[in-house]
């Protein structure tokens, strides 16, 4: 039987989630809690506290048997529910299986080149991904995984075989930075970096550049060391931290300057990265 998973959002056409126009699927739920997360409402599953139901100005939410029910038709997308939620969650979730998501994906063809699954952390739902990717590949669509890298890809080789690759976040390099930024160490992320590169499944490596929160220079140097000769065929995206959507300790944190981003790009090129994209 197909597994139904919590889906936070499906964006029909995105140009920033991999090559070409893609349908982006955002799952709900994450296994880490990054201080710089720009969509923190995707981190946790709803615990049914009811705060959003009381705050909704459109009457689009109600409690049914201890769970929130969302009336999509009545919702005016004001985001009040997200702002009042004390749990980094959202009541605007649909539980869908792979067939149901695929029906939506199909309706966006022929205007998309593929799908990208993101989150939250989509690798928390590998069975769903395998089923969805199997369906998508059957109609000629490409399939990418956007992941924080904390789930061991070596244990999901069948899923990897169905995927064109992984856009892997490398949030830091040293464990002290990882723990302070995400709440967990980076052992599995570093292992995945080496494994995905070996398997030729590293579609893109992503490093967010912050001011004093993650030492991105060390991340880029560390990655280059692990990649060895493969660095020349690796696409690296350097992403400037922006505070939009961020809640908590980094809500008002500054973005790095243009000079810092230029220096990061220069460092990455000097280490031999084949493609360096700054965004
Ligand atoms: S976004 Fe949330 S609070 Fe606003 S109308 Fe929709 S369900 Fe209600
Ligand atoms: S979405 Fe958040 S505020 Fe609404 S019931 Fe769930 S935990 Fe409470």
Task: Give a description of the structure.
Helix 3 (98-107) runs parallel beside helix 4 (126-138). The strands form two sheets. A nine-stranded mixed β-sheet has the order 5-1-2-6-7-8-9-10-11. It has a two-stranded antiparallel sheet with strand order 3-4. The mean pLDDT is 96. Strand 3 and strand 4 (67-70) form a beta hairpin. The chain is 30% helix and 22% strand. The chain contains nine helices and eleven strands. It has helices at residues 51-55, 80-84, 98-107, 126-138, 157-162, 175-182, 187-198, 216-227, 258-270, and strands at 5-14, 22-27, 61-64, 67-70, 94-96, 114-118, 142-147, 165-169, 202-209, 235-240, 275-278. It starts with a strand and ends with a strand. The protein is an alpha/beta fold and 279 residues long. The radius of gyration is 19 Å and the shape is globular. The protein binds iron/sulfur cluster (SF4) (2 copies). Residues 56, 58, 60-61, 70, 75-81, 92 line the site of one iron/sulfur cluster (SF4).
Name the beta content range.
Answer: 15-25%
With strands numbered from the N-terminus, the spatial order across the biggest sheet is 5-1-2-6-7-8-9-10-11
Task: Report the count of strand segments.
Answer: 11
What is the string of SSEs from the N terminus onward?
Answer: EEHEEHEHEHEHEHHEHEHE
Radius of gyration: 19 Å
Q: What form results from the Cα inertia axes?
A: globular
Helix coverage percent: 25-40%
Structural class of the helix and strand makeup?
Answer: alpha/beta
Average residue pLDDT: 96
Uncertain parts? none
Count of alpha/pi helices: 9
Ligand kinds: iron/sulfur cluster
Distance between the termini: 41 Å
């Amino acid at each position: 039987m197909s597994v139904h998973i919590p889906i936070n959002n499906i964006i029909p056409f995105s140009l920033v989630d991999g090559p070409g126009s893609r349908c982006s699927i955002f799952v709900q739920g994450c296994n880490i809690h990054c201080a710089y997360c720009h969509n923190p409402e995707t981190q946790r599953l709803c615990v049914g506290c009811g705060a959003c139901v009381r705050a909704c100005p459109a009457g689009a939410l109600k409690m049914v048997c201890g769970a929130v029910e969302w009336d999509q038709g009545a919702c005016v997308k004001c985001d009040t529910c997200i702002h009042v939620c004390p749990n980094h969650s959202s009541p605007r979730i649909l539980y869908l299986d792979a067939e149901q998501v695929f029906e939506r994906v199909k309706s966006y063809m022929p205007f998309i080149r593929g799908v990208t699954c993101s989150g939250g952390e989509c690798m928390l739902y590998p069975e769903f991904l395998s089923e969805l990717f199997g369906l998508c590949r059957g109609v000629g669509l490409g399939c990418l995984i956007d992941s924080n890298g904390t789930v061991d890809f070596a244990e999901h080789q069948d899923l990897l075989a169905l995927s064109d690759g992984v856009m892997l976040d490398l949030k830091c390099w040293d464990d002290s930075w990882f723990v302070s930024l995400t709440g967990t160490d980076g052992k599995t992320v570093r292992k995945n970096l080496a494994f995905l590169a070996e398997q030729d499944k590293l579609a893109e490596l992503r490093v967010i550049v912050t001011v004093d929160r993650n030492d991105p220079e060390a991340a880029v140097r560390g990655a280059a060391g692990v990649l060895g000769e493969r660095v020349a065929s690796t696409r690296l995206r350097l992403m400037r931290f922006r505070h939009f959507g961020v809640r908590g300790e980094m809500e008002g944190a500054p973005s790095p300057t243009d000079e810092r981003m230029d220096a990061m790009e220069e460092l990455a090129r000097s280490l031999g990265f084949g493609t360096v994209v700054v965004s």
